[in-house]
Specification:
The structure is a single chain. About 45% of the residues are buried. Helix content is about 30%, strand content about 25%. The longest helix has 18 residues. β9, α5 and β10 form a beta-alpha-beta unit. It is globular, with a radius of gyration of 18 Å. One of its GO terms (molecular function) is kinase activity. Pfam families: PfkB. Keywords: Kinase, Transferase.
Length: about 300
């Protein structure tokens, strides 16, 4: 029997929500009521979904976030336990309700409409054992929510020599400061740094602000990437789209996993990890909700 491969460990820092997802024929208009085709309830948020994907692929994921002790938090913790994600909850015994995201997915297109207050509970201090959490992780992923916590943790991760990955869903206050501590940034087409209006300009901005490896995803269009001495595009597999909710989160969780397993970062490994991550994210779009894709055929780690 060969040696047992140790599971790569990752710390995910960011938003955790309770997602209530409805599959509908159309987004209702003012004062309209309609009956949904289906529903799903799961823990959500970019870092949270990324952690679940990372765990599903075979990694050991820990989520640093705020959930609290409100009765609704039980649904979040149960879902994450089922997904194999460990939780470090900075909200402790707070009785405030967790962030709830209301999501409507249009059946014909898979497009989603989302309403959420996101991370509005105030700054979160880093936990007392944050250095140990960082030391025992191979890679850290940040979604830009709970920004003060993200900056402090990313700075400490850089000092400890750990790889840092950023999920840029949108530009937020403090993003530029966080960029100083990021090794890999993969952003959506909705990520618009100051003075930019296109994915190409966003990519150039990231590279100009000392992010060594950067990429911009654009739905089913090729992912454009750039590194210190090279650049390119990675094709996104075509798949029948049922639900695009969380696809970007899955992309980041899978990318984090493949980078952690590869244990190197060069043009070949970065493009290869993006390609594998795109395959996983595309598969996630083929089923309703953010967890169903995990039930349709093993981990399929690609390695």
């Amino acid at each position: 029997m060969g040696p047992v491969r140790q599971r790569p460990r990752a710390l995910f820092v960011g938003l955790c929500t309770l997602d209530i997802i409805q599959l509908v024929d159309h987004v209702p208009g003012s004062n309209e009521k309609l009956t949904a085709r289906d529903q799903a309830i799961a823990a959500g948020g970019p870092a949270t979904n990324a952690a679940a994907a990372y765990s599903h692929l075979g990694g050991a994921a820990t989520l640093l976030t705020a959930i609290g002790a409100h009765p609704l938090a039980a649904g979040i913790t149960a879902d994450l336990a089922g997904a194999g994600v460990e939780i470090v909850d900075l909200a402790g015994l707070s009785a405030d309700p967790p962030t709830v995201s209301s999501i409507l997915v249009t059946a014909a297109t898979g497009e989603r409409a989302v309403a959420s207050i996101n991370a509005t509970s105030g700054p979160l201090p880093a936990p007392a054992d944050v250095d140990n959490l960082i030391r025992t992780s191979d890679v850290l992923e940040f979604d830009g929510h709970h920004m003060d916590l993200a900056i402090a943790t990313a700075r400490a991760a850089r000092a400890a020599g750990r790889l840092t990955v950023f999920d840029g869903g949108s530009w937020k206050d403090g993003t530029q400061e966080l960029m100083a501590w990021i090794d890999v940034a993969v952003c959506s087409a909705d990520f618009h740094p100051p003075g930019t209006s296109s994915p190409e300009e966003a990519l150039a901005f990231l590279r100009a602000h000392a992010v060594p490896w950067a990429a911009v995803s654009r739905g089913d269009a090729p992912i454009a990437w750039a590194g210190p001495d090279s650049s390119g595009k990675v094709d996104v597999p075509r798949t029948p789209v049922v639900d695009t909710l969380g696809a970007g989160d899955v992309l980041h969780g899978a990318l984090t996993y493949y980078l952690a397993v590869t244990k190197r970062l060069d043009a070949e490994s970065f493009a290869g990890a993006l390609s594998l991550a795109a395959q996983v994210a595309s598969r996630a779009c083929a089923s309703f909700g953010t967890r169903s894709w995990m039930l349709t055929g093993g981990t399929d780690s690609g390695l």
